[in-house]
Amino acid sequence: xxxxxxxxxxxxxxxxxxxxxxxxxxxxxxxxxxxxxxxxxxxxxxxxxxxxxxxxxxxxxxxxxxxxxxxxxxxxxxxxxxxxxxxxxxxxxxxxxxxxxxxxxxxxxxxxxxxxxxxxxxxxxxxxxxxxxxxxxxxxxxxxxxxxxxxxxxxxxxxxxxxxxxxxxxxxxxxxxxxxxxxxxxxxxxxxxxxxxxxxxxxxxxxxxxxxxxxxxxxxxxxxxxxxxxxxxxxxxxxxxxxxxxxxxxxxxxxxxxxxxxxxxxxxxxxxxxxxxxxxxxxxxxxxxxxxxxxxxxxxxxxxxxxxxxxxxxxxxxxxxxxxxxxxxxxxxxxxxxxxxxxxxxxxxxxxxxxxxxxxxxxxxxxxxxxxxxxxxxxxxxxxxxxxxxxxxxxxxxxxxxxxxxxxxxxxxxxxxxxxxxxxxxxxxxxxxxxxxxxxxxxxxxxxxxxxxxxxxxxxxxxxxxxxxxxxxxxxxxxxxxxxxxxxxxxxxxxxxxxxxxxxxxxxxxxxxxxxxxxxxxxxxxxxxxxxxxxxxxxxxxxxxxxxxxxxxxxxxxxxxxxxxxxxxxxxxxxxxxxxxxxxxxxxxxxxxxxxxxxxxxxxxxxxxxx
Length: 611
Description:
Elements: E1 8-13, E2 18-23, H1 27-33, H2 36-47, E3 61-65, E4 79-84, E5 92-97, H3 101-107, E6 112-116, E7 123-128, E8 131-136, H4 145-156, E9 162-165, H5 168-171, E10 179-181, E11 185-187, H6 192-198, E12 201-207, H7 217-235, H8 238-251, H9 263-276, E13 281-285, E14 297-301, E15 310-313, H10 318-323, H11 332-345, H12 349-364, H13 383-395, H14 400-403, H15 407-414, H16 418-421, H17 439-447, H18 472-489, H19 502-513, H20 520-540, H21 545-548, H22 553-556, H23 573-584, H24 595-600
Parallel strand pairs: 1-6, 7-12
Antiparallel strand pairs: 1-2, 3-4, 3-6, 4-5, 7-8, 9-10, 9-12, 10-11, 13-14, 14-15
Helix pairs in contact: 2-18, 2-20, 7-19, 8-9, 11-13, 12-15, 17-18, 18-20, 18-23
């Protein structure tokens, strides 16, 4: 077994109530798929039974680490959760989480967990030092993610354990439900929380004393020493990242505000929050393993009506936008409070938040009345009303049942012109910023194989000015190979956006595993392999080019204000998608992978799965 791997998977059958160990495949397979999303998607493609649905017991829920997870390289914390997407219903679903869960799973002796079946009662899984137990979770069912973490740690008697848990949103099978670990980190995409809830699996706790074998320690020390300062410099230091991030998003017009109606207000909201983090909100960075940046943080409110509130916020701005800015909430303490509420309930704010902001706009336009909304007056900026509606959605209570269906279906249920105002891609939430003036980033989200998410490194994502369509398709196809390879190794995306190239990751991978003769072409082929596996899986489950073009009218609408005013993806969308297919080696009219493309990647056996 190569260095970097514990050498085994944990197989959990919740229907039978059994656990067993299984060895990892050999080096020949590991070099082709590496880990995290690569091994996870391979397992999903091979093990999902024909005809299974996302919430069926037979749909596997897969937690997978990479060979760098738990090592000293910067941000070596990545764990990927893979399943059949419960939010889109026809794509693979992948979500990344960080903190301590992936490393602790490795230290406990496992590279991953494959969960199938469904328990008749709530349970949690306790994985520790080469052992696993299925335990009763009746006492924590119904609790939020933070409460669950604390109670599970007390139950197992190990305060250092890392706990990945669902909240009420996952228990109630919301497509936008997430899995939270270590109080700051979300596996938010792919409907993973709903799948976990369908299995009556409330939490997974992991802890171990094991060490990860490293083939060439001296080489690892050298590459880590060069990589770490570069990552820290690229991301700036923690206080600067926290205080300037939202202000920067607002300045360039990508801070998603009021259901994408008010980019100019996003600038005001961003600067207001940045100023608060220099005065009465005290941010304290909470780094993941081996992280020089610490983008996750505790936000303590020291004055005002919410004095004493401590929010445990993650590293991105998407949750704050979906929970707060998308409904016009601008008070910084309110932003912290409602974002923390989403996390505790176990919800992806980029998904559920878009459904709720749709309701606010429909109310303003007269498509909804107080009678429709259970007496709630949905006025922009009213954080208490927004929170009340959030709780209704989670409970699937009253009007909340409508919004629990996600932004696209909710719009159809509301009727009238509501579908024009919904914010979604493929019917689901996405990595929520207002990308409308960044055409490569828009294309990245809509063609992503695991549902709308980051699967490439579109260079215009945070460009200070809107961009052009020329070259976007080729850029996305090329950078997707690189991004998906890096998603396999086990380090955090923030550690290599500016801090590490494929060559750096490859050098670290070789040092840890001991693999000889690694080349950049071989590593990029890993990323291409993942993209093609996802594509075959998705087409086998009904995806067509119409789904890749399913970008809501609001997303294709030119902003009326802000830096992207007048810029629309609509005239270019179909042509860009077809160009992307061509660069990927797929049929331009359908997106069907060509036989020679699959053969080049060693995936010719998957051709029979294509419709």
